[in-house]
Fold:
Amino acid sequence: MRVFVTGASGWIGRGLVTELTAAGHTVIGLARSDAAARALRAAGAEVRPGSLDDLGTLRDAAASSDGVIHLAFKHDIAFAGDYAGATDADRAAIETLGEALTGTGKPFVVASGILGVLGLPSGAVATERDGLADAGNRKGPISGGDGRMGNAHHTLALAGHGVRSSIVRLPPATHGDGDNGFISTAVGFAREKGAAAYVGDGANRWPSVHRDDAARLFRLALESAPAGSVLHAVGDEGVPIREVAEVFASHLGVPAVSVTPEQAGEYVGWLGGFWGVDGPASAQITRDLLGWQPTCPGLIADLKEGHYFT
Structure:
């Protein structure tokens, strides 16, 4: 297929370009800078200059492709405090790409988050059926709430409009060498503060996945996920944050310390609101549906390799 990919030069996108080209697909990557364009060409992808705000570019690129994978998100403005602005831009992009694909039966795969399905009973393990799993069966107007979770709902509803849409829910710990997300940020805070913090007894669990395993799931979703599918890119169902902090401490030569929820922001900055969340998740439905099996190291094994600390 000729596959249009937004966010192709980002953390997951770099792995996805390699995964798609190795499988014989042609990648057309959206590039908002010269540096991104050079990186995409070096990886063997074609370049479509533009950003998420260039809706005409998105529409034309989607219409001339055999499928679309949407990874891009304005993380920079979201982390700066304008989360609403980031999700609004994401919604506009999804609507535009979806309109270009309506009635074609072409695949449209969108990245989403597993933390968006929290609110389950204490100790429950989130599955693909929780939260949004029935949205793709809707035949009426496309709708579905606010924020990024609402954008995922909107994507799934496109299945009722002739689009083979699916979402891939990513864990907060999507890890690997070169990671610039939550885990690398937490390492930076531990180094800066001189302590690796966990909340309470640190028994709260985060699901995780290696970036390369996640990239393979996006390819499988593009190739064969049924319309309206909710997929979980989960390798480790739930890693206790205390174990994560203890590996930080060992490599950085700092103590691992218990903090209260109110103190978390002092130790992990803007991650404070997430660091104590318990949100284990399963990917069994995804594995059964697509035959996806993670093969890369889990989070703790990846941390112990040391590349996060050099």
